[in-house]
Prior knowledge:
The chain is about 75% helix and about 5% strand. It contains eleven helices and four strands. It has helices spanning about 1-30, 40-55, 65-90, 100-120, 145-170, 170-180, 185-190, 195-220, 225-240, 245-265, 270-285; strands spanning about 125, 135-140, 145, 220. The strands form two sheets. A two-stranded antiparallel sheet has the order 1-4. A two-stranded antiparallel ribbon has the order 2-3. A hairpin with a 2-residue loop joins strand 2 and strand 3.
Amino acid sequence: MDFILQQFINGVTVGGIYALIALGYTMVYGVLKLINFAHGDLCILGAFIGLTTLTSGVFAGLSTPVLLVLAFLIAMIVVAVAGTLLDQFAYKPLRKAPRLSAVVSALGASMLIQNGIMLIWSPNVQVFPSNLLPNINWEIGGAHISFVQLLIIVGAFVLMAALYFFVHHTRVGTAIRATAIDQDAARLMGVNVNRVIAMVFIIGPVLGAVGGLFIGLYYRQTYFTMGWSYGLSAFIAAIIGGIGNIPGAMLGGLVLGLFNAFAAGYVSSSWQDAITFALLIGILLVRPTGLLGERVAEKV
């Protein structure tokens, strides 16, 4: 029983990270019907920006909690700018082009960001300092939860709840849902579609930057190709939940995280990728549109 509870905690921790990153994929797909393959690399860019903020010495006089908050804020701002530039130069010129053109552009942008990270920070693994977060563990029913796990779980759920409220209970969120349903009709109703798309390319990368920095703090390392593997896992999570479906991305991330945790515990971590794709295939065979269906918004 202790082992099951421990794997559950581990799964929810990783699942929260997957969910944050998956939200970026699902929001872009919901509005543009585009798979932003560069999203995973933007997330890891956030991890590198956060690590640089924490270790550069520029803010050496600040306390650790303030430094951590500053690292998250700087990472979110830089990655949001990068996401906006990505839309302006890689996707916006191809709005009316065949969909394959945008996919190729996304893959090219992914390679550009990945190699840019390698040139700036080197291809070596970058290690996060061990003294950034308190080394505290709490015992729950025989299992242990660390401070960093609690931080990730609480942070991920707070951000997911905030996004859900924003999309479903604000005017901007209504505009996003309207644009996702029908862009032409949204324009006729006075929605600035280009502004909505720009907003999506800010919100998604901001959540991704937090997810990327969570990855670095949890595993205490990051490297320039990490964005592809975590981006792929988050993309699978979005498909499992229902691509284009915001609650589906949240659910898909948690399901994938839990499934991987128990698979690693009861089978082997070396089989994790194969088991992940087996889960994806199994779910798509039963529900081709994902657990919650492929939808973006409900007509109200």
